[in-house]
Amino acid sequence: MRLLTLNIRNGGGRKIPCILSGLLDHNADILVLTEFRNNTVSGDFRKNLSAAGFVFQAASHDEHRVNNILIASRLPFEIEPHEYLRLDPVRLFNVRFDRFSCVGLHMPNLKAKIPHWNALLRLASSAPDDWWIFMGDFNTGRNPHDSEGYKFSCADYMKTLEDMGWIDAWRHLHPDAREYSWYSHKGRGFRLDHAFLSPPFKPLLRNADYDHVLREKGITDHSALIVDLAL
């Protein structure tokens, strides 16, 4: 099973056809897209995703002027709001597949994300043996490994999640590497896009890599993260 997450940057706009082509190149089974917007352009985008096999789709809300999260899948799922995630369902969007749950997320910046991290940690600690994936734009990284000369706020929350037995899929497979999924206007790199897997997933992780093509072409400002699981 292959999952892919990408921040498509303010709805994608005129670059949606290029984004669609880039997504389909990866033959994913599940897409978690952040900064999606429910507008006219995205309507065609969703139709094209469906025609490509992503017939199961849900967005975190319907407001067309506000960024939200789209989960599109070849596998059936149901929207499953969790009590710990209700503080901000636009940014913490939970769906349930047959064998696992997936939280698509897009955290706010700086200290505004503290309540969101607290919610994730409460959920993680409440069900340590359940099958969960947290995936999306965390706007957080580990210090100093995930940035160039910048100290992340809330990096300790990531460590707490790992101390619970969860794994940062990419870092687990690339323990000493540096790779960035977003760059500031000053050219400093940051690894912001992650997939965290609950303990039962650990032996099933096969691969996790970033694809920088869409970002390097200026189609969006984030790199895609692709995770392969033997599920």
Structure explained in plain terms:
With 231 residues, the chain is of the alpha+beta class. It has a single domain (2-229), classed as Deoxyribonuclease I, Chain A. It contains six helices and 14 strands. It has helices at residues 16-24, 40-51, 114-126, 155-163, 169-173, 213-216; strands spanning 2-7, 30-36, 56-59, 68-73, 78-79, 92-96, 101-106, 132-137, 167-168, 182-183, 189-190, 193-197, 205-211, 224-229. The strands form three sheets. Strands 3-4-2-1-14-13 form a six-stranded mixed beta sheet. The protein has a six-stranded mixed beta sheet with strand order 5-6-7-8-12-9. β3 (56-59) and β4 (68-73) form a beta hairpin. α1 (16-24) packs parallel to α2 (40-51). The termini are close together. The mean pLDDT is 95.
What is the mean pLDDT? 95
Helix content: 10-25%
- Number of spatially distinct domains: 1
Low-confidence stretches: none
CATH architecture type: 4-Layer Sandwich
The CATH class turns out to be Alpha Beta
**Strand-pairing-aware structural class:** alpha+beta
Q: What is the terminal separation in angstroms? A: 6 Å
For the sheet with most strands, the description reads: 6 strands, mixed
* Name given to the CATH homologous superfamily: Endonuclease/exonuclease/phosphatase
- The run of helices and strands is EHEHEEEEEHEHEHEEEEHE
Instruction: Give the neighbour order of strands across the main sheet.
Output: 3-4-2-1-14-13
- State the helix count: 6
Assess the beta-strand content as a share of residues: 25-35%
| Secondary structure: number of strands | 14
Shape, please?
Answer: globular
CATH domain fold name: Deoxyribonuclease I, Chain A
Q: What Rg, in angstroms, do the CA atoms define?
A: 16 Å
